[in-house]
Amino acid sequence: MSVVDKELAIECCLLAGRLMMEAGAETYRVEDTMERMAETQQLPSTQSFVTPTGIIFTPGNPYHTKLIRIKNRSTDLEKVALVNDVSRKLSSGEYTLEQAYAKLREIERGYVTFPLWLQIIAAAIASGCFLVLYEGVWGDVPASIVAGGVGYSIVIVIQELTKVKFFAEFIAALFIGLIGYFAVQTGLGTELDKIIIGSVMPLVPGLLITNAVRDLMAGHFVSGLSKGAEAFLTAFAIGAGVALVFSF
What we know:
The protein has 248 residues and is mainly alpha-helical. 69% of the residues lie in helices and 6% in strands. The radius of gyration is 22 Å and the shape is elongated. It starts with a helix and ends with a helix.
């Protein structure tokens, strides 16, 4: 391979790693994907160090070490699956390097998540289902659906405006608590605790906690502790928002 092809292979590996981290993939999975892609392009001596906020990738001599920042993180398992599919097809020879890089760019530009309105509806319905799961009464399901949908909408709007995830989750939990409280006070609900528990479940960082534990078990202590701290702050923000309602 020429020097130009080698540089393209390095950029392709970094792009794949960044897309996976931004979509919520585990650290060890990102490193494994990057190394497998590099091996297929005659770069067998690569080393990578992945954290939730950045990727350091070393192709080996005579190429320079590269660093790429991870600025946005979300949960998009479909994007992770698409990047993995590109990696497998590149490794099997089904894609050329140029085709793989073009496909990754297409994934980066494409909006592969579900529409916003559908996410809000799904969060609302999930809130009602969680209320039933936690043995709440069926009469509280409408209040839980409304509170869950409003809370999820607030998270998206405030995070887009302020870029501060934990503040958005705090405000969302506060509104969920207020909606549940007023529902009980007006007779539209009966069990405040079950309404709130069901409504905050779409905000709970379940995938983040799972990835933190899996990274710790795989020996990626920096990433595992970072994701664990992020999950703890999210849980604290949700709890503080709900507690503020009860304090009044």
